[in-house]
Specification:
alpha/beta; TIM Barrel; 7-stranded parallel β-sheet; two-stranded antiparallel ribbon; 37% helix
């Protein structure tokens, strides 16, 4: 049996979650749109994650849309007492599968109620306000207006804790002046390390950081050096990439996604992978772009 507790735990809001979690995005259809090809298989993945001790699941009502939340409810409700479901608002899906900002007050409130209804909850444990930013990542700009709306929903006890997604350090600082920010969710992995300084600052503040696309997202990480380290450790390159993230900082909470039980088990097994210091140095060099191996990201 896989023991994900070896990866440790960290505070998320007023709960303690295991650092190895699960992201439900890939359970929807191609392009995170429409139903899964194998609904029974998607249910099996969620139940396997819970049975393996995962108590942090990331989702959003705009995955599908609606698909992943409905799958989570079908697979796991009544929910385990220690399960923390983290969702996101701030976007909606077009009929053409496009991602459209949805930041108006009525849209934000509707999104919270949609998540509550489809997940079958009275209150959402953590809601990340997703800032659409630019196509390449976060973009500076005030988040006061939408975050103030979300903070109002928190005061109405529809939301317990608030996080931010796809944001800059300046936006986090602005957000902290409005409400308590319990987590940040940005793109970060071996090849994308723009948030190095931010992660360290958040760790000092005791704030969780959940990297999305920890395995490279739609273009998986590829590196000769990464593959060589994996071969040496008798692991897969993706397991090594996850183990590197766990080693990187104690506040990093992993939410790798998959629609396959086999891949889920492989990802969870990274919790037990001991990454030697010399291997970590090699991986750091890849991330810094000074290794000879090419990285496709």
């Amino acid at each position: 049996m896989i023991d994900i507790s070896k990866a440790g735990a960290f505070k998320l809001g007023d709960r303690i979650v295991k650092r190895m979690g699960y992201g439900a995005m890939q359970l929807a259809g191609p392009g995170v749109f429409g139903p899964p090809k194998d609904r029974a298989g998607a249910i099996a993945v969620l139940r396997e994650a819970a049975a393996s001790g995962v108590n942090h699941i990331d989702t959003s009502d705009y995955y599908g849309p609606y698909v992943t939340n409905e799958l989570i409810r079908e697979a796991l409700r009544p929910y385990p007492g220690d399960l923390v479901i983290v969702t996101k608002i701030g976007a909606r899906r077009g009929d053409d599968a496009s991602w459209i900002p949805a930041m108006a007050p009525a849209e934000l409130e509707s999104a919270v109620h949609d998540n509550l209804r489809r997940l079958g909850l009275d209150a959402l444990e953590v809601v990340n306000l997703r800032i659409m930013g630019s196509v390449h990542g976060p973009a500076e700009g005030s988040i006061e207006a939408p975050l103030t709306v979300l903070a109002g929903l928190q005061r109405r006890e529809l939301v317990r804790h608030i996080g931010l997604s796809n944001v800059t350090a300046a936006q986090i600082a602005e957000g902290r002046r409005i409400c308590d920010i319990v987590c940040v969710q940005n793109m970060y992995n071996l090849a994308r390390r723009e948030d190095d300084a931010l992660i360290d600052e958040l760790a000092r503040a005791g704030t969780a950081y959940a990297p999305f696309f920890p395995l490279g997202g739609f273009t998986p990480l590829q590196s000769t050096a990464l593959s060589e380290v994996a071969k040496r450790l008798d692991a897969t390159p993706m397991q090594v990439a996850l183990a590197w993230l766990l080693r990187r900082a104690p506040n990093i909470l992993l939410i790798p996604g998959t629609s396959s039980v086999r891949h889920l088990r492989e990802n969870l097994a990274a919790a037990s992978l001991d990454l030697p210091s010399d291997a970590a140095i090699i991986l750091d060099r890849i991330a810094a772009g000074v290794a000879q191996a090419g990285v496709a990201q």
